[in-house]
Give the backbone structure.
Amino acid sequence: MNYAGFWIRVGAYLIDYVILMVAQFMVYSIFGVSLFGAASLDPEAAGMFESVGAIIAFLITSIGAILYSVILESSAKQATLGKMALGLVVVDEHGGRISFLRALGRYFAKILSAIILLIGFIMVAFTDRKQGLHDILASTLVVRGQPGMVGVDPGVFE
């Protein structure tokens, strides 16, 4: 099994990050909200979420980011655009496609991986199967390969 290591997964994340930031910029622009103001040190920027348009833009981009990951990873492609670009797929313990609910659980498990000082992500570099905490919790693997062409020994999870 050709597990995807830490650095290639970081690369896939960076590609996805750029894609999501462009989409976020476009949505915020449509609603007339300055995305750069929200990230600035300007005390006036704190008031950006006082408008209805800004709240709607925030909700659209937040839900959109979740759906981007969950829908693509549970689709026949088994990967986000960043993972596809680098030849990676997300699989279950049998090497098969993951369900929408498993992808959703994996997405929210990434929050846990992040809030513990990113240790859940760093684990990818040190585990035998290159799994992060979110992968372990969701019983998933990220591997190099093509959708539907990856086989995994189910004993891996015993």
Q: What stands out?
A: The mean pLDDT is 89. Residues 68 and 80 are 7 Å apart (CA to CA). The two ends are 16 Å apart (CA to CA). The first helix runs from residue 6 to 30.
